[in-house]
Amino acid sequence: MDRPTPSIRRHRSTKIVATVGPASSSPERLSALFAAGVDVFRLNFSHGTAADHAARLAAIRAIEAELGRPIAVMADLQGPKLRIGRFAAREVALAPGQPFRLDADPSPGDATRVHLPHPEIFACVGPDTEILLDDGRVRLAVTAAAPGRIDCRVIVGDRLSDNKGVNLPSLVLPRSALTEKDRADLRISLDLGVDWIALSFVQRPEDVAEARRLIAGRAALLSKLEKPSAIDHLDQVIELSDAVMIARGDLGVELPAEDVPILQKRIATEAREAGKPVIVATQMLDSMVNAPAPTRAEASDVAAAVYDGADAVMLSAETAVGRYPLEAVAIMDRIARRVETDPLYRTIMDARHPNPNQTSADAITAAARQVARTLKAAVIVTYTTSGSTTLRAARERPEVPILCLTSKLATARRLALSYGVHAVHTEDISTFAEMVQKACAIARETGFAHSGQRLVITAGVPFGTPGNTNILRAAWVPDE
After folding, report:
1. Catalytic residue annotation
2. How far is CA 226 from CA 259, 265, 447, in A?
3. What is the pLDDT of residues 315-330, one digit of tens each?
């Protein structure tokens, strides 16, 4: 991958994550999606077989090899799914005020009761605990609980059918975020060589620590923030993760709708403060599952995430099963590009600069942004092994792109998720002269700089030492 292709440079800093599914599985469609603007492909292990995911990953790697551009692939683990059992009539109607029971009896339910096949829930609930069914369409308040039985009163009623989901906003369940299926899918994903593992059902920091032990450095770890209890430990969850996802769908079920936009801004701010990538996800262009254009509200939603400084915005059903996957990626690309040219956007990014840590790496990285602005440099070039140098540069949200040069392909792929980063896999360097020469040559080849323009370069000496940024160099791109 030492010779990147100039034509695939993105003209935006915010990245696009797209979910792969039946509408986007063929090699031709995956290639078209990448050309349209996808930076990270998400394999959703809630659907599909191991063979399906292996074939999709192989096709993505073939595109990567053909274009010479590292592409990130994320495996999203399903996590525990809490569901009620079945009804004799397949569906019942529940009215506000009526009693309703959840119990351990596996027989089909009726309008008075239904099976709850999750013994851990019986041990946790108490009077007044709120239980949500079918994404909150039915709300129950617990009136009494005993082993194998939870008596409730219907607060919000609706029709309720077989196997609908269960949410318990106020409880932390005594169970791991990883089911046996997740553990098997994790082994498959790591053996396939994915770059990111997305962990569902994070309730507490210990869930993240458990997944990190199992991953053992073979991929980067992203924590999905979808449970209120995870928000209660937000600082620790972010610290233990390599990135986070704001999973607004599940958060919106378990929290009041008016809280979710505020949480989105808080999480985006705290993730940037920590120098960790953050994805905004769920229903961003949902109408494009069936329509060729988004609603104005959806366009505003994507724009708001970009204004929040998110590293990436994500498409789910829009590209997995939607009728217009290419159009969804294209409009998301156009929205992000348009927002990033708005003067207000730059004002917001500059106003929210986190204070640098008291380290030489942060001092050099913060200075690189300032020097690039003063010199009107075309690009900031970072040499990195582990990716830490480039992540700190992305934390600064500079006005110019970040061209990351790394000798580790795994690092280049993972950094495809990070704000403003164009990662190039290239051979390592050994001297200052080689550092400048290679930075200038690749910046010119990739279209980030032209002869006579300035570069700002950060690196660490001795070269190849992770986390040792201690050099800042400005250079002119020479004539060819």
Report:
1. 42, 83, 224, 282
2. 13, 15, 39
3. 999 999 999 999 999 9
